[in-house]
Amino acid sequence: MMVSVHAAVGAGVGARAKRPGAALAAGVISHLLCDLAPHRDYALPIEAPLALAVFLYLVGRYGPRSPQFWGAVGAVLPDAENALVIAGAFPQEKTIFPTHNEAAPWFLGHGRKVRSPLPQIILAALALWLAEKGRAM
Ligand SMILES: [Zn+2]
Q1: What pTM, to 2 d.p., does this model score?
Q2: Ligand 1 center to 6 CA (angstroms)
Q3: Closest of 126, 125, 4, 18 to residue 68, by C-alpha
Q4: Residue 66 Cα, ligand 1 centroid: separation in angstroms?
Q5: What is the pLDDT of residues 100-121, one digit of tens each?
Q6: Which of 32, 84, 123, 136 is buried deepest, with most CB atoms within 10 A?
Q7: Where are the domains of the chain?
């Protein structure tokens, strides 16, 4: 799943948490579920600016202490190992997240590839709406 969509979904589920730690954990779990869904990934030059834009939006809208922000951090955290693999700093076969390493005995699967980004755009919009609904008054 696109990193920016992971961040948006993490913000949406994190908004329901009372504490940043719970939001972080909910974000990590959301990463697992999103990776299992059919999706399309993009190259780093597309993924990085979109993810940055979502994080800048979340910090500006809710602040760096908000459950929305920490949910988003938890949701993108598992892809840090993928970033290290892309950077050549970590071997693919050592990745530990259950949706990242097909050779690992704990591999749960990874969603099939789809052509259109539209389902992910709709999911991100819905998640950002949930993040807004959960906003502290
Ligand atoms: Zn992932």
Answers
A1: 0.93
A2: 8
A3: 18
A4: 23
A5: 999 999 999 999 999 999 999 9
A6: 123
A7: 3-133
